[in-house]
Design goal:
The chain is an alpha+beta fold and 153 residues long. It has one domain. 23% of the residues lie in helices and 21% in strands. The chain has a 7-stranded mixed beta sheet with strand order 5-4-3-2-1-6-7. The two termini are 23 Å apart.
């Protein structure tokens, strides 16, 4: 499912979207949680990648997974946040990013995974700057979305 977060022109644009099975199914224990974050070309990915690693660690403690996918403001899928604490060319032989280190903490493993353009363009749930539901969402996510709506008022 998608969650979108945007900030003003003075700061880097940020959009967050929920994607994946947890956004559209009522599974008791979903296998993963996925977010789509739209970032400006000049956005610093270091703090986002750190938050993504914490999310992944927390999800793994429940036997689940987590991914933070990235897109640019034009709606082009960029890849995922780098899973490594230290990111850069030659740091990991197993890195499958096409352009490792060109943009720090962008893991552009486009040969491994690419999000459908429709998901990037219109994620099922956006949380910021306003909550936007494009599909029926599970009850637990409804509670989260309602919390975002209450916080915006």
């Amino acid at each position: 499912m998608g969650v979108s977060v945007s900030s003003g022109a003075a700061r880097s644009e940020l959009s967050v979207s929920r994607t994946g099975e947890q956004s559209t199914t009522d599974l008791a224990v979903p296998k993963d949680i996925d977010f789509l974050v739209t970032v400006a070309d000049d956005a610093d990915l270091v703090p986002l990648a750190a938050a993504a690693r914490r999310l992944q660690g927390r999800a793994q403690s429940f036997g689940s997974g987590a991914d933070v996918f990235l897109a640019d403001p034009a709606g082009r899928y960029l890849g995922r946040t780098c899973p490594w604490r230290e990111c850069g060319p030659g740091r990991r032989l197993s890195c499958d990013a096409r352009h490792c280190g060109r943009r720090p903490y962008l893991h552009d493993d486009l040969d491994t995974i690419v999000l459908a353009p429709a998901i990037v363009a219109e994620p099922p749930l956006e949380l910021h700057p306003a909550v936007l539901r494009r599909t029926t969402i599970p009850a637990d996510l409804q509670v989260i979305a309602s919390g975002f709506e209450a916080g915006a008022q």
